[in-house]
Structure formats: C-alpha cells, structure tokens
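Forwarding these from the shared drive since the link keeps breaking.
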Amino acid sequence: MDSTKQTPVKYYVGIDVGSASVRAALVDGFGTVVAHADQPIRIWEPQPDHYEQSSADIWAACCSVTKKVVCGVDARQIRGVGFDATCSLVVVDKQFQPLTVNCEGQNYRNIIMWMDHRAVSQVERINATQHRVLSYVGGVMSVEMQPPKLLWIKENLQESCWEKAGYFFDLPDFLSWKATGVTARSLCTVVCKWTYTSDGGWDDSFWRAIGLEDLVNDKYEKIGNHVLSPGESVGKGLTPEAAKDLGLPEGIAVAASLIDAHAGGLGVIGAEVKGHNLPCENQPITSRVAMICGTSSCHMGVSETPIFVPGVWGPYFSAMVPGLWLNEGGQSATGKLIDHVVRGHVAFPELQSKAAASAHSIYTYLNSHLDLIKKSLPVGFLTVDLHVWPDFHGNRSPLTDLTLKGMVVGLTLSRGLDELALIYLATIQAIALGTRHILETMEAAGHRISTLFLCGGLSKNPLFVQMHADITGKPVVLSKEVESVLVGAAILGACASGDFASIQEAMAKMGKIGRVVQPNREHKRFYDKKYEVFLKLVEHQREYRTIMNSS
C-alpha cells in the first residue's frame, strides 16, 4: 500500500468582466480550467454612441458565477482571486454608492462603457493641447480612454455627478476595491487609460491644461494615489462581506487587477513553445504579439526598451508583463462588426433556420457553406471582387481616426445565402488586413514580430484564425485553454497568493499551447493584392471627404 501523502491541488479563481457577460473559472497551478461559468450583464444604449452599465449588476454576476465554479471544492485549496474587466469608467459617491452618468438621473446606471463615444468634443480639445503625456498613447488620445469621459461628466453632469462624485474607478479597480475595501489602483489601468506614468506618476500640468484641475487639488484621491503592480496582493485579501458574496473564505489573497485584453495577453504570450517549430522558439518574448479577439480586438506587443509607435497606444512600462514595455494596437469593433454584418443581412433569417436545423452555430454553418460554394478555389479567393473597410466604429489603430466609416465595394443585387457568406468572409478578411496594418506599423517603429498568439471568442472560429495567418504571413498559436483571459486572471491570483515567485514564472507554467496554424505561403500574392486594395479604400474615403467638405 502506497503510504506517500499526496499534495492537495492548489486552485485559483479568475473572474473576467467582458462587455456583455461575466465569466469565472477555477484554474489549477498548471493552467487547466477545471470549472467555468458565465452570466450575461445588461447594457443600456440611451442614445447613439452612449453605452452604460451598472456596477451593482456586474458585481452580482461576479458573485453568481464564482459560487458556481467553487461549488464542491475544498475552500482550503483555493489560494487566490484575480479580476480583469473592460476599461469602463465606474462612478460612485463619497459613500461608494452608484452615481448617475446619464441625463436621466438613474444612479444604478453608473458606468460609462469603454466603447462609449460621447466625449468626441472633449477628446478633440485634449488632443489639441499636444501635451507630452500624449506621446505615450501613440500621439493621439482615444475617446475610449478616461480623461475625455471625465471631462464630459464635468461639462454635462456638473451637479448630478461631478460635484457628488467620491471616486472614479476603472472597472478592474472597482472590482478589487469591492473585494478588499482597498481603493488602490492597478498600474495597468492608470498607465494605459488615465495617463499615469510608472516613473513620474500623475502629471499635474496635463490635468490643469484640460480643465480637470479639481483632481489635482484633492491630491488625486478620486482617481487613485495608491498604485500597485498587477498581481500584487491587495490589502488583507477578501473582506468578510465580499467573501460571503463570492462564496469564498475570508482573507483569500486578491490580486491587483488587469484590463481584460491584458489578462488575455498574460494568459498566452508567455507559453512554452518548444517542439512546435515556431520562429519565436529560443527567441525573447518580444518576438510575439498577443491578439485578444472578442467584441473588439487588441494587439499586445512587448519590448525591452520603449518603442513609440504612431497611432498605437504606449509604450507603457510594466503594464502587462513586469519589467517590459507594452504597446497596444486595437480595433474597436471586430466580433461586434461580424455580428452586425451577418445579422443585418436580408438572408439572415434563412441562415438562422438552416443553422438550427443542422444543429450548428450560424458561424459554423457559414464556414461550411463557404466550403460548398468555393468549388476549386481556395475559400479566401472568393472575395476577388468584394472588399470591406472595417472601421464601422472608427479607427483605433494605427490611423487613430474615430470619424472613419465602414466601406463595402463590390455589392450586387443578389440577396441570398451565398452573398451573406461572401460578405461575412470579406469582413473577416478586412479585420485581418487591419491587423496586418497594425503589425506593419509596429514593425516600422522597431518591433520584431514573428508569431501571433490568439485568444478570445473569435479565436474559436477556424476561418478567422486561418485568415489572420494567411493575411499577416505569420504562424498563429492558439492556447490549449480557450479561455485564456480567465487563465490570465487566475495567474494574477496565483501571484497574489505567493505560490509563484513572479508573473513570468506563473505565465510559463500556467500558459499552454494547443494548436498552431501556419500561413499558406501559396496565397501570399493574392493577399498582398487585397492589402493594396484595402489601403486604397481609406485613401478614397479621405479624398471624397475632402471634396464634400470643400467650399
């Protein structure tokens, strides 16, 4: 009889707040997701480009999904909790109660979502200052960052919100406060979305220049004057109230959080790649880009020295991987765009019924339908006469122009399922061409990128993955665990627990490769031509705007 004592498995909880749902996972020390749960959350759209949520709704969903994943597990084996979330703005009063961010005065709607574009006028004025902090956001601040949203609140909700506000949180920091009672902010959020610098902190002159001197006068109490590195333990861990809400023991370590895309990057970019014949093998992590593809897409590249890339956010020091500089490209609408194009097509009801009859998702059915109509051609070649410019929600990177609109060239009078499948394919290709545009801009500035690491919902779509490999000409690595963002959040909890010496150690042990998708080199000439057309589309859009705006 074997008398050796088996070491109990250590578990970590990762909680991810996306745009439309909250997810939780129980993850072991090898990065395996052993339990998973999700729950939808509400989004309000009171008027075009205004998107709001409720912090109470989100916290309730966090508690619900966490209780599900830890059910039946010995609480003594759960060592740490990590949160990630979208970079949305949460407003609470001095007693930490929700405070309205809308003209209707509805306090429970106290979050301005990341994708909210209400602060266009404010961001234009901020960019007109040409302040030195803007060099760390690609030279131009995005309307999706927090300073323009704060300025909008001050100018539009002075009495109902601005004067009553006690704290403005990035959503990931709100969650760590809710769990611990500590108002410390993560270096990731304040550096990436608020203009904090890891060496100099807040720049008083910037906030005064844009009309938010109130924040300076109270010594940044409202936006954070205590900053922690991602993965660092916050306070004394879970408070009794939060522990009861989440179904976890009091005092469990809680990590300083990450933005959701950065958690995805953490979950994939550090994985061991030996034996997969990849160009990044035996190369530093700086040869990799993590691409997190969901409602929107983010492109995360790291470097040992700061690289300033026009139109790409950063460089941010230690914002994702400690000790390395981060550049972050992005596309504001990817999964949302595909959904918009497909569901808005006249043949969508036919697609829905046929997909349901075959017991497949609509996207699995579309991929199969493309295989049927391609005949002897490679699937991608079906769009030789159909081209899409994908900026239906403006361009985040590398053109930083939120006024750009989507374009489709090559439409016919056909209205059937074949045409729906083709516009779906052309939209996916346009997103991949946009990724190539971002990568080429990063490489021109000094990045050396050989391999893409994909995660997020769109990475489950084999057509999306193959088009990114073919169009960028780079191999695509998919993680063993599809839920890489949740693994990234769990890595934070693992670090906060003290079970790993560093984020890098946890990344290497908990990040695992699943599948590698190689580009088809024989298709390079076709996609080079598609890319040439792609760049012409935005030239034409700008030309016709010049004509229409001329006197």
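-- next protein --
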Amino acid sequence: QIRLLPRTPGEEPPGAEDSPAPRTALSARRFAVLLIFSLYSMVNAFQWIQYSIISNVFEGFYGVSSLHINWLSMVYMLAYVPLIFPATWLLDTKGLRLTALLGSGLNCLGAWVKCGSVQQHLFWVTMLGQALCSVAQVFILGLPSRIASVWFGPKEVSTACSTAVLGNQLGTAVGFLLPPVLVPNTVNNTDLLAYNISTMFYGTSAIATLLFILTIIGHASTVLLPPSVTESSRRGLCLEAVSQSQLQAAIISLEEAFKEKPRYPPSRAQAAIQDSPPTEYSYKNSIMNLFKNMPFVLLLITYGIMTGAFYSVSTLLNQMILTYYKGEEENAGRIGLTLVIAGMVGSILCGLWLDYTKTYKQTTLVVYILSFLGMVIFTFTLDLQHIIIVFVTGGVLGFFMTGYLPLGFEFAVEITYPESEGTSSGLLNAAAQIFGILFTLAQGKLTSDYDPWAGNIFLCAWMFVGIIFTALIKSDLRRHNINTGITNGDIKAVPVDSPTDEELKTVMMSKQSEPEI
C-alpha cells in the first residue's frame, strides 16, 4: 500500500547530514481519492451549464426572460463569494473528509430538488435546486490543489492538480453535449418537453446519488493492516510480528472515515508543514498574509479575469451561436464540447509541463497571451457564416483558456507556501466568480443590445489587462525550494488532524526565483 520515495545520498541537500530528512512516502490510495473527487466534481459542473446551453428551450418552457436563465448559471458564482471563507475555514480546520461529503451530498440534494420543478410555474423550484448545487460547488472548487499537495509527491503534484480540475471540465463538456440531445426544442409540444426535461433531471439525480454513496464508501475505506506493518516489513520483520490487537484496531478503523492525509507526507514541503506546531496556525492571519503577498494579489486579479471570461463565454455561448446560426442548438452544444475537450487536453499538458520544468510564471504568461489571441480570433471569425470555423477557433480558445485553470492553482500554491492550499485556491475561485458575474452581466447586455462582437471585444480588453498584470508577478517558488532542500526561513503550520509521533522539527526555507532554478 505504501511506496517509499527513492532517496540516495546524492539527493541530500548540503548540510542535511546534521539533521535527518523527513520521512516521505507515496500511498497508492491517492488515486482513489483523486478519482472520487473528480467524478462528483464532474456532476456538479454538468448541473452548472445544463440550463445555459439550451437557454432558449428553458425560456419557452418556464416563460421567463434570458436574464432569468442566465441567473441559473450566475447563482453558482454568486453563492461562492460569501461562502468561500466559511468553506475554506472548514477545510482547514475539519479536513478533506467533511468537506468532500458536504460537496457531494449537497450536489445530490440539489439534483433531486430539481426533479420536482418540471412544471411551467415552478421556475422557483428549479432555482432552489440550482442554488443547492451552487453551495455544493463551494466545497468542491477549492480542493484540487489541496488534494494534490497532501496526497501526491513533488514530481506529480501539478499533474494531479490538473487531473482534479479535469473532472470539473469534463462535467462542463458533458453539460454542453447532452442537454441539446436529451431536451430538443419542442416548445410546441409542452408535454413532450416536460418529459424530456424530467428524463435529464432524474438521470442526473441517479448519478449524483450513486456518486454520493461511493463518496461515503470510498471515504470510509482503509487498509486492514495498520501502516506500521509496512514499516515493520521494511525493516525486515515478519508479518507474524503483528499482534492480534493491532489487527483489531485496524478493523475498527474501517468505521472511521477517509483519512485527511496519508500516513507519511508525499513531499518535504508537506513534511515541513505537518511537523510544525499546529497551535501556530490562525485562519485570520493566513488570510491577512495572503492579501499582504503582492504577487498573489496580482495573480488573484489575473486569474479572476481569465476564469471569469471563460464563465461568461460558457454561459452566453448558446446566445452567441444562435445570433448568427439560427436553429443550431445542437451545434452550439458541440462547439462548447469542443472548447472544453480542447481545454482538458491543455490542462493535462500544462500540468505535465510544470512538473517537468517548474517554470510557473513563464508558462502562465505564455498561456495567457495565447488565450488572448484565441479570444481575438474567435471574436472576428464568429460571424463568417461557416460554423466549422467556429469549431476550430472555439477549440483553440478552449485549449489555452481552460488550460490556464490548473496553472493558476499551482502557481498560487508555490508563491504562498506554506499557507493552506484550500485558502489560496478558494480566494482564486472567489475572484473568478466575482469577475464571472460582472462579465456575464456586461457581456450579456452588450450582446442583447448590440451583438456578440461587442461583448467579445469587452472580454478581449480585460484579458489584455490580465496579460500586463501577469507580467508584473514576481516568481518566488517557495514550495519548490523546500522540496529541493533549499533552506533559510521559518515555516508556519497549518492544522494537522493526525500529528506525527516524531519530534517537531524547525524547517527553514529561502526565496529562490525561477531564473536561479
């Protein structure tokens, strides 16, 4: 169950002979944790976009305006902003288990509430269900970097974060693809339309329920033998040395839920945090430290602009496409699918590139510039009356714009270490939701009053501002410094629910820029 990270004398940093390096190990269980999270994140993202991609259908069914349907998407953004602070506090103090169960459980509950809204006068019920799903999202979006840091080693942490983000993107892709197929535009036959909507809602609820059950089961599973068996075996002791009491204790531990972290930290950076006194941690001080960190504040703004633009384009894509291509609801969904699938490829490639090069700022800046160029090309080719061109330009835009999402998460963790990954990711997502609401309202107004070209130019202007701010970010790879053994500065602690039995050690760190690396 446990694979020790390879360690050779040549890997030891200078001066390591005087103090033993922290014990680190990789657990095979990390892949199950990542899979479970990705699946219920996928269903939550599907529920976010399932209305917007067929907005004209729901407008006709409920007899509401396009703004009402847009709010079914924007409620996700609106709910996130006030709830992010209690959610990140809960993650930091109570850990992954409770946060994961809340996210999956609320997502399931919201899906079932929407099943009771398939009548034309019950728009408020579908809004209530969507609001519950939006609250679930608060307990989901901040977890990718936390799961990656706590469970994965330094050579795979960026890829793990990208994979966790991938689940959310896959849900958006499915949300673009399936609703136009499951709920075709049959406004003239209200009974058939209600049946199709009901089929989509009940199918979503069944899958969400299954994933909630898997979350409970998966988060309650653990190995029968205690981790000390592995350690004893490593030292040459035989399996028979395990006492009956140890086996009983291990079986009883099955009743305990998902471990907040593996037995041994996967990297020196996590070892440094876990070995620090937890009494030093203050959530309020952590928030203040983040806002005093100017590189992080700049990243907060640039991430909010980029991701907010993505949210706005996703929400209004159906309206943009139907303006120039009448009756192309299904192709609008396929274009959205192309955008997100290309972005999923971009996310994985960016994660692999970061794990290989650790060039966080350079990669982030290049991807930002290419996203801006993709948006410009998409804007000026949208009305050429050749929908195949929109497929191509949408794919290019999605590859870079969606591929940027895990870059922002990982760059934030690097420049804010040792502050909690959940807190930094939560603030990034809060910025994205704020910009997403503002951009969606502004672009939607420009699109309805003028045309999609005006709304897209508005986004291009803001993305250009984001490029300038990204260039101003100072790169200080603190987590990478710890993992490579560079030491010279105090590490503060974050809450540790299962403190190690080793003596608390003071681990030091220093600043090292990307050019020096």
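The chain has two domains: 26-221, 283-486. The beta strands are 2-4, 25-27.

- D.
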